[in-house]
Every structure is written in C-alpha cells, then in structure tokens.
C-alpha cells in the first residue's frame, strides 16, 4: 500500500522549536486541533466549522479560518502546512514553490492507517505522547464495540444518498470488521464503493443498514432513496445503525467517538 504520508522539507526545524502550523484540509484540521498546542495553530481549512462535516466545530471556532488558497497561508509564514493528498494540487505546489514545508496526508482507509497518521501528526507537532494517548483511547473504543458486536454478529450495509454503498476496501469496512461486523457492500463487487439499485439492496438482504441520520424529510431525490417505502418496510429504525457523517468523513480522533456511537447503536438494535 502506498504510504499515506509524504513530507517535503526545505530546512529542518530546530528540535527545541514548537512549529507554527496551518491546515488546509478538514481531516488534517482534526488531527492538528487534537494533538497540537493552540498557540501552534495558525489557521484551519474553510470546512473546519461546518456543522455537518466538522467533528468539533466548537473547538475549531477558536482558530482563524483560512480560505484554502495559497495567498492567506503565505501571509502567515507558517513553519509547516498540513494538507490532504487530494487538497487542490495547484495550492500545494505553489506553497512548495514558495519554500514552505508541506506535509500531505492521504485519506485513511483502515484503523491501522488512522493510528499511523496520529503518530505522524504527533511527531510533526512534537507531541508524540498525545498521539499515543489517542491511540490508547481508540484501542479501548475498539474493544468496547467488539464486545457489543460479538453478542450479535451481523452483516451491515453502509448506504447513503442515491443508493451510494460503501464497498469492501475503505475505512467503513475497517471500522465494522474491527468490531466483528461484516460490510455486506463487499458482496456487491464494489471495491471502495459505488451506487447500488434498490433491488440490489433488497436482494442482498443485509441484517442492518448503516446510515448517517434518521430524518424522515426528503429534501431532494438523493435523500428520497433512503425513504423509499420498500427500504422503510424492510429496514425500519430498529434495523438501522445511525452513524453521523461527521464521525466517518475522516480518520483520526473521530474514530473513538464513531466506535462509541457504533457500540451504542448495536446495543439499541440488539434483540
């Protein structure tokens, strides 16, 4: 598997320095806010306070919100910029061309990668002990969720708007398998994910659906898919695990809360 992290260095920081860091990606926001001292954080990405995407918008509110473009980052003169591997390439390349150090993180596709990225960010902010503390919390959350799931091992299909199904090679699968649940999406022949028809989902007959919310209002056709009478009849609330999107959009510290929520949902639907 390709390394999830690459660091471009123009000149090393002195070991005694606490680097001043700007983040231009939602997932690196969350790692940075969790592991760095507040004084180290110069700014966060435009989505840091988004209530639907941000893990902790209130914590993010204390920091400057950046545009995500290179200009305001350059004005801050950070020691380091942390970004996603899929953050706008032109922005990343311009920052490097201007001599800034840029650390790039790919989307985590497993809990092992989540742990690796916690350690990598911990090293960058010079607080490795905080990364190890987060990993210890994650291990406890995994054990608790596994204990809940083992009482009732099930096939779970993660499905969202317009029938998008999480396939077999992604963070959702790692999250489910870590606690003893099976991602039924892999049975549809999907690797990372893809769209599945209503008929395919009903034919697959997963034990439970994993959804992001329980709203009964369809603001558009994409949302209406999840409220189709056939799905609602076969999968009422008692057969739906609810895991908010803000907990699964990124790896990192969100996984502890995601696993705790998953444990509670498993206990809720357990017969």
Short description:
This is ABC transporter substrate-binding protein. It contains twelve helices and eleven strands.
Question: What is the topological layout?
Answer:
Layout: E1 5-8, E2 21-23, H1 26-35, E3 41-43, H2 57-60, H3 70-76, E4 80-84, H4 89-97, E5 102-105, H5 111-124, H6 128-150, E6 155-160, E7 164-166, H7 171-178, E8 182-183, E9 193-195, H8 198-204, E10 208-211, H9 221-224, H10 229-234, E11 240-242, H11 245-248, H12 254-269
Parallel strand pairs: 2-3, 2-4, 4-5, 6-8, 6-10, 10-11
Antiparallel strand pairs: 1-5, 6-7, 7-9
Helix pairs in contact: 1-5, 5-6, 6-12
Can you describe this structure?
It is a single chain. The chain has 271 residues and is of the alpha/beta class. It has two domains: 5-106, Nitrogenase molybdenum iron protein domain (Rossmann fold); 136-269, Rossmann fold (3-Layer(aba) Sandwich). It has helices at 26-35, 57-60, 70-76, 89-97, 111-124, 128-150, 171-178, 198-204, 221-224, 229-234, 245-248, 254-269; strands spanning 5-8, 21-23, 41-43, 80-84, 102-105, 155-160, 164-166, 182-183, 193-195, 208-211, 240-242. The strands form two sheets. Strands 6, 7, 8, 9, 10 and 11 form a six-stranded mixed beta sheet that branches. Strands 1-5-4-2-3 form a five-stranded mixed beta sheet, with helices on both faces. Strand 2 (21-23), helix 1 (26-35) and strand 3 (41-43) form a beta-alpha-beta unit. Helix 5 packs antiparallel against helix 6 (128-150) and helix 6 (128-150) runs parallel beside helix 12 (254-269). Residues 20-270 form the Fe/B12 periplasmic-binding domain. This is ABC transporter substrate-binding protein. InterPro entries: ABC_Transporter_SBP, ABC_transptr_periplasmic_BD. Pfam families: Peripla_BP_2.
